[in-house]
């Protein structure tokens, strides 16, 4: 096991055992208490290792300090602390605000929980989604960079210039023809680059949207879990965290997808990522 993951394993084991013990003390039998402890341990492990991956700078082995799942729902420090991030584009800002709101809702659900096993699970989930929302803010910077790069440039005008230069090259001879052909190629390559950036921007935004929707779904799962335990027999009912874990896994998949798209921006020879995965229904639409 990687050395930096040992604290995560220890925390997961400790909190998983504590969750199982809490469930047993609450009246759940061994068959119910052990799965509850295992589920909490899994969520703690996921939150810790994903936080480590998201906050570790490329080429380093040590990430920023993050809050332990058992120590409270404190949000991790934003990247570039000490200076504000540039303002994201309006369409990206809308989704980033929704991501932050989803984190706040899940944290409130954690505060409302009166079941120790569920509280531990939601604490780990809050740590996860808080870091995920922070990563979304960082990835939105790529959208802003694309907008800055392409601002004031008309791809259609470039294509028109390319056709004009190609026509002039055909009508020229010798060195003049070679110069016109070189200009036409350069103009065409620039137009193609702008088109690729526009397509990558669309893909970034689509993936950002779907990931935020998954964050919102995770918050709704947390609300459902708290509500069910509030009206049920919390002493014997062990929380079923399957749906919540599914949403957190989907959030992780979205973040991985954004990583892939961002890498393609920095590597011109890298094949363009395929279409974004389908997003869940937006309850606000």
Automatic annotation (TrEMBL):
Biased composition (Basic and acidic residues): 157-170, 256-270
Signal peptide start-end: 1-23
Top-level taxon of the source organism: Bacteria
Region (Disordered) location: 53-91, 151-188, 255-285
Alphabetical UniProt keywords: Signal
Protein name stated in the entry: Uncharacterized protein
Organism the protein comes from: Streptomyces asoensis
Taxonomy of the source species: Bacteria, Bacillati, Actinomycetota, Actinomycetes, Kitasatosporales
């Amino acid at each position: 096991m990687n050395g930096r993951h040992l604290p995560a394993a220890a925390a997961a084991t400790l909190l998983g055992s504590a969750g199982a013990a809490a469930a047993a003390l609450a009246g759940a039998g061994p068959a119910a208490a052990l799965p509850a402890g295992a589920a909490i341990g899994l969520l703690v492990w996921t939150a810790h290792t994903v936080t480590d991956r998201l906050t570790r700078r490329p080429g380093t082995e040590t990430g920023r300090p993050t809050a332990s799942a058992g120590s409270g729902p404190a949000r991790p420090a934003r990247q570039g602390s000490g200076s504000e991030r540039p303002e994201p584009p309006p369409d990206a800002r809308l989704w980033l605000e929704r991501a932050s709101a989803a984190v706040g809702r899940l944290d409130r659900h954690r505060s409302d929980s009166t079941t120790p096993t569920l509280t531990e699970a939601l604490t780990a989930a809050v740590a996860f989604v808080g870091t995920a929302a922070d990563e979304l803010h960082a990835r939105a910077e790529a959208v802003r960079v694309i907008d800055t790069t392409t601002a004031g440039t008309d791809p259609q005008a470039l294509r028109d210039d390319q056709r004009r230069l190609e026509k002039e090259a055909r009508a020229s001879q010798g060195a003049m023809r070679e110069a016109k052909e070189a200009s036409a190629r350069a103009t065409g390559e620039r137009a193609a680059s702008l088109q690729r950036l526009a397509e990558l921007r669309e893909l970034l935004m689509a993936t950002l949207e779907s990931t935020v929707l998954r964050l919102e779904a995770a918050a709704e799962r947390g609300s459902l879990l708290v509500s069910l335990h509030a009206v049920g027999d919390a002493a014997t009912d062990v929380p079923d965290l399957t749906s919540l874990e599914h949403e957190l896994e989907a959030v992780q998949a979205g973040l991985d997808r954004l990583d892939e798209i961002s890498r393609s921006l920095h590597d011109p020879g890298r094949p363009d990522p395929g279409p974004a995965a389908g997003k869940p229904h937006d309850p606000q639409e």
